[in-house]
């Protein structure tokens, strides 16, 4: 019985390097790609290089409130952060889906989602709402931050550790080196 279990476990281990990253990229594309692209689209007026009120208000909620939502009062630093964040929401998900520079893109998304979560909690006041923050081990997987984004992180960590998998541009480029 143990020998059979070991053979099955070894077969599963051997297939994991191809299946896990491919599955992680598919799940990301099916569930989060358009979430990030739609979010990026709410941040600009005309082009990603001309952020609108939505971009500043989402990323710098307290600063925008302090200036009465007048974007002309925001600094070049604020502009640069909103533009970089908007471009990241388009580029990093695309890189993950096509499997190009996947480890780098996954690490970028880990940083992005961490900053996004902290902004949601402290900038937008989500920390004061238990239903937004969530709570681990409570039997309710509905909290937007601790529960849902933990699953996002599993996808990103899988891609950072395993790479893009066999069906990717990373694989094509590695064969040409």
Question: How is the topology of this model organized?
Answer:
Blueprint: H1 2-31, H2 33-41, E1 44-45, E2 47-51, H3 53-59, H4 61-66, H5 76-98, H6 102-123, H7 130-133, H8 144-162, H9 169-175
Antiparallel strand pairs: 1-2
Helix pairs in contact: 1-5, 1-8, 2-5, 5-6, 6-8
Organism: Octadecabacter ascidiaceicola
Transmembrane segments: 12-37, 76-97, 104-123, 150-169
GO cellular component, one term: membrane
Task: For the structure shown, list the relevant keywords.
177 residues, mainly alpha, two-stranded antiparallel ribbon, 72% helix, 4% strand, flat, membrane, transmembrane, DoxX
- Report strand order across the widest sheet: 1-2
Please identify the structural class as seen in this structure: mainly alpha
Low confidence ranges? none
How much helicity do the residues have? over 70%
Q: First CA to last CA: what distance?
A: 44 Å
Transmembrane segments: 12-37, 76-97, 104-123, 150-169
Membrane topology: Multi-pass membrane protein
Subcellular location: Membrane
GO cellular component, one term: membrane
